[in-house]
Every structure is written in structure tokens, then in C-alpha cells.
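Q: Could you predict the 3D structure of DUF4232 domain-containing protein?
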Amino acid sequence: MQYAAGLRRTATALAAAAAATALMTGCGPAGDTGAAARPSSPPAASGPAATPAGAATGGTGGSGGAGGSAGSSATGGTGGGGAKPTPSAPGGGGKAKACTIEDLEVSPAHQADVRPTGTGTGAVVISVKSRSTCTLLGFPQVAGAGNGSPDKNLPLATTNSGTAAPVSLTPGARAWTKLTFVNVQGEADGYCVSGSTPVVFPSLVIRVPGAGSHQIGMDDGQFAECDNKVTVTAFSATKPS
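A: Sure. Here are the predicted C-alpha cells for DUF4232 domain-containing protein:
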């Protein structure tokens, strides 16, 4: 009986050992393979990094992709910060700044080739030269200079001719305007058709839109006109005749 009991204990021990061996065998290579397979799927935290296609079409949008979708990246992305060009940035399509008094140099007036019949000045062409890149727009204002006394300047009644358009200037480039006066008739001191007395100004004050007032003379002679009226064209990149 003791022998039989010993056999049963031995058999039980062998069965337990066999079961332990089988259990250890099941946790061997097959178990390692299963553990290696799980990381092949990216963890949730690395999900956004798996959307390079959307980031590629959006350029700088990739830097904002951590919290956004591929669709938002494709439209340029909002997470990149500063990725969108501003009007003043290169590529933004913005216009040059408006010309200021520091940007422009006004040349003396030159008698125009096309002017009203008479013996006075008739019409003159004036140019402005740019020192920097800027945009000029509008019509000049004109006054007869008060011989060094600005309070004695005589504004002329001005009529604008044509339509103003922006003139983009680079350093050294010029824009022109034409001033047409009521011309003096006759010889010597001449006369005005209206019956008024002709006026002669050694110089004029030209006010450039946004770019201050400039006193100029003529490159040949003085400004002789009637009725204190002038018709002006808008500044243009094309020199008037």
C-alpha cells in the first residue's frame, strides 16, 4: 500500500512537471512574437506624425499638425504661426509705401511743347525724381510764390484734368505733371483776354500729394499767366508733351 501510494505521488509529481514544462513552452517564442507585433501599430500619441501627405501640401502647416487634421494642413495650416505672407512681406503682393517729402526731388519747370496760343508761359512740364521705392498718386496744387514770404503765396484756382492712377517709383525714376495756364496775349507786358492784368511769378510753390510743398522756378524765364487759373494733370509715369 505504501508502494502504491508512492507510485501515485510519483505520477502526480511527473504530471505536474509535465504541465509546468508545457506552460513554459507556451510562453517562449510564440509569446515573444506576440509582444513584438503589438508595437507595429503606432501608439495613439504618435498618430498625427503619420499624416505627412497633408503637411506636404500645406507647406508650413506641418508645424501646426500636432493638434490639427490633415485637411487644415492642406489649406495652409494655422498652427505654423506667421506662415501667411503679410502685404508688406515679400510675396505678399503689397504695394510700395506712399511717397513722402523725403522721397522726392522736384525739378525746375520746363516750358511744354504743346501750349495755348499767346506770349506768356502757357504750359509747363514738371517732374519729380524718387530717392526710394514709393507710390505717388494724385494731382499737384499750385500757388505763386510770395518772393520768400510764404504768407504772401497766391494760390491759383486749380482744375484737375484726367484721372489719377498710382505711379510706382523706384530710386531714380520720375513722374510728370503738366500745368496749363491762361496765356498772356500780345507783346511787351501783354494783356489778358478777360481784361485782368497779367501776373508774373519768378517761382511757383508745387504741393505734391502726401509729399509736401516745393518751391521751383523755370529752367528758362518766369511764369507769366492770366486770371490766376491753372489746369493740372495727375502725376504720371509718361512725360506729357
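Q: Anything worth pointing out?
A: Confidence is low (pLDDT under 50) at residues 1-93.
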